[in-house]
């Protein structure tokens, strides 16, 4: 699977799962659908960005770092819009970014003639 | 009466053994190594102005058959054009009747010396795969090496891996249409009745050299029995298995019997299958062996061993350790956030 598609799918799935976990927070349970949709869109945007980065830069460390940065920034923006829950939104969002960054570098199919980063 | 000292005798012997290259295009430089079959010298090819390795066979030429066989052997090796096989440049006869080859002069280290500096098991296995490539190529051309061991593999200055010393190499006519035209190409066809006692003398006579047919520890049981009729590519696979065992011995083990790399059943199974006493239980060809080693390197199941569910889980974990740990970290963080948010 190519890196952008992998980033998109992984970002969407992890974003949706991330959104669903808000069910455990009774205060926001009523807004679950909106949170899941927002979180999924956030995951898709992060995944595409990370996937494109992985296609250009073949480095596991940089991929993870970029994933962390994108995840953090997007989660921070969402938290700002929510006016709260900074830790609950930024921390998981950043880790999801790291996971997508790692996965696109490690498992995404490299372009022809470009070796995948070493383990 | 005055006796000569041992040192003087040795010197005289070496001087007498030094090949006289007059009448050839080569100029002798220095003695490089000595093997069971002959001595290798560094020489200069004066016509092409390059350094070559010149191997002079020690065995005196008693008759035309021996020289003809060696010439044919050199012709066969010259056809083995592969990056992992030392190319033979020339073959000829010295003024004293001794046959010589010239080959590419490889500047590097023998594998047994080289791996002292290679502490990573995957790197060692990748070296092994390159040896397999060369041997598989030779087998595809109908040639058996029959003396594969660390000392017969050179690793060049740029990491190139070269299989050396094809002095015991034999040809399997039926596997190579290219050599079928050579009336002397069949060496291994002498029939030997099943159940007949092993006779190394007979094997020696068949090969016509009266020299060692392999190296203990790396020689297959059928080869050490002199069971010439049953020697085929699986004999080389046995030697490759022994070579693999050597490479899989950890650097610590080589100097300290208590220190080892982590034991791995899949790796051990590959070694065990390669070195089975019964050739029928070994890998059928080198390609199968190298495919299993490649699968092992990639963290995939190997054909030499049937996995249990726990083995599969362990292998999956080893292969995806970082991803699993990241997901575990995510879940742990989620649980912690949940706990703290409920307080």
Shape of chain A: elongated
Poorly predicted sequence stretches spanning 5 or more consecutive residues of chain B: 174-212, 255-259
Task: Kindly give the count of domains of chain B.
Answer: 3
Largest interface: A-B, 14 and 11 residues
What is the count of structural domains of chain A? 1
* Large-scale geometry of chain B: elongated
Q: How big is the Rg of chain B?
A: 25 Å
How far apart, in Å, are the first and last alpha carbons of chain A?
18 Å
Write down the CATH topology of the largest domain in chain B. Answer: Transferase(Phosphotransferase), domain 1
Give me the number of helical elements of chain A: 4
Number of helices of chain B: 12
**Count of DSSP E strands of chain B?**
10
Total E-strand runs of chain A: 0
The percentage helix of chain A is over 70%
Helix and strand element order of chain B: HEEEHEEEHHEEEEHHHHHHHH
């Amino acid at each position: 699977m190519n890196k952008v598609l992998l980033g998109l799918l992984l970002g969407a799935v992890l974003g949706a799962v991330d959104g669903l976990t808000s069910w455990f927070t009774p205060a926001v349970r009523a807004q679950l659908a909106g949170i899941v949709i927002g979180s999924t869109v956030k995951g898709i945007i992060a995944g595409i960005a990370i996937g494109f980065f992985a296609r250009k830069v073949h480095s596991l460390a940089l991929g993870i770092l970029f994933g962390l940065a994108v995840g953090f920034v997007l989660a921070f923006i969402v938290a700002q819009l929510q006016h709260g829950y900074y830790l609950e939104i930024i921390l998981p969002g950043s880790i999801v970014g790291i996971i997508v960054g790692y996965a696109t570098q490690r498992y995404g199919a490299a372009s022809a003639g470009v070796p995948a980063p070493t383990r | 009466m005055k006796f000569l000292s041992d040192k003087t005798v040795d010197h005289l012997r070496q001087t007498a053994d030094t090949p006289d290259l007059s009448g050839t295009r080569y100029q002798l430089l220095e003695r490089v190594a000595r093997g069971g079959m002959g001595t290798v010298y560094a020489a200069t090819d004066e016509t092409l102005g390059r350094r070559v390795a010149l191997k002079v066979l020690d065995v005196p030429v008693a008759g035309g058959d021996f020289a003809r066989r060696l010439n044919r052997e050199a012709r066969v090796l010259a056809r083995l054009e592969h990056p992992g096989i030392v190319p033979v440049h020339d073959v000829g006869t010295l003024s004293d009747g001794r046959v010589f080859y010239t080959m590419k002069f490889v500047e590097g280290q023998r594998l047994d010396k080289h791996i002292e500096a290679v502490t990573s098991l995957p790197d060692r296995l990748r070296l092994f795969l390159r040896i397999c490539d060369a041997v598989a190529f030779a087998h595809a051309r109908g040639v058996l090496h029959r003396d594969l061991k660390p000392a017969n593999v050179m690793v060049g200055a740029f990491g190139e891996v070269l299989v050396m010393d094809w002095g015991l190499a034999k040809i399997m006519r039926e596997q190579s249409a290219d050599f079928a035209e050579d009336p002397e190409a069949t060496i291994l066809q002498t029939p030997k009745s099943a159940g007949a006692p092993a006779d190394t003398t007979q094997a020696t006579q068949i090969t016509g050299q009266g020299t060692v047919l392999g190296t203990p520890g790396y020689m297959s049981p059928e080869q050490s029995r002199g069971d010439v009729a049953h020697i085929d590519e699986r004999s080389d696979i046995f030697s490759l298995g022994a070579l693999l065992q050597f490479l899989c011995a950890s650097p610590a083990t080589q100097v300290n019997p208590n220190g080892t790399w982590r034991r791995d059943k899949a790796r051990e199974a590959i070694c065990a299958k390669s070195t089975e006493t019964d050739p029928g239980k070994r890998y059928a060809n080198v390609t199968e062996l190298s495919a299993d080693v490649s699968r092992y390197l990639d963290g995939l199941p190997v054909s030499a061993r049937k996995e249990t569910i726990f083995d599969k889980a362990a292998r999956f974990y080893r292969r995806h350790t970082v991803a699993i740990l990241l997901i575990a970290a995510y879940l742990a963080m989620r649980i912690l956030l949940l706990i703290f948010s409920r307080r």
